[in-house]
What we know:
The structure is a single chain. The chain is an alpha/beta fold. It has one domain (6-236): Spore Coat Polysaccharide Biosynthesis Protein SpsA, Chain A (Alpha-Beta Complex). The chain is 30% helix and 23% strand. Strands 1, 2, 3, 4, 5, 6, 7, 8 and 9 form a nine-stranded mixed β-sheet that branches. It is globular, with a radius of gyration of 17 Å.
Amino acid sequence: MTSPLVSIIMPIYNHDPFLVQAIRSVMSQTFRDVELVACDDASTDRAWELARVEAAGDVRIRLFRNEQNIGIARTRQRLLEACKGTYVAHLDCDDFLERWAIEEMVRLFAAEPEMALIYSDSAFVDETGRVTGYRSDPDFSHKNLMYLGWRHLGVYRRDAALAVGGFNTALKSGCDDGDLFMRLAVRYPCRHLAKILYYYRCHSNNNSRRNKKCDQCEERSICNYFTIWSGVVQEYYPDYRPPV
């Protein structure tokens, strides 16, 4: 296929009960000028086989596989370098998109081309896909970086992400998306789109459940998210104390 306008990157590691829904939520988008660029990070379940079956039915799916597990940050960097779109969106392999999610994002980028990143609101779903709650995120501002990190659905200009260095592949914690968000946020205009476009699945194996709080994380010395977040706190919230 020719270069699409939007690349949706998906690191895959297990989660085979949810993967097909995630992939099909991309391929059924009302905005058709997309590609799904997915990389299996040496899954130990049926995820790779399922991804291959889905890819065989749509030329807009491009699949890669790591021969050994290299972690989500390095896998995302591989996907960022491989994708062809002007804009890049993230979708985790256990979540799914609203059918018009990319259409909404493309429309806003067209209206405000100076934006480097746009993020939406999201809904929480259970293992069956039933909505259990909603999250409305703060509007974007430098002061609001106290309350922001990576937000779903996040879509950004590929050239901007490469200009700030791409993903921080030194991180092992899984916070590399928030690290990238902060570096984009302090350098470029960003925007909140107050519409629910992303469905975040809550289940017993969510990777984010295992993440430590920033003040307890051993990687904070190499994490741009923590460095920038700390600067915002110092500037705007000097009396802030982390919860015990």
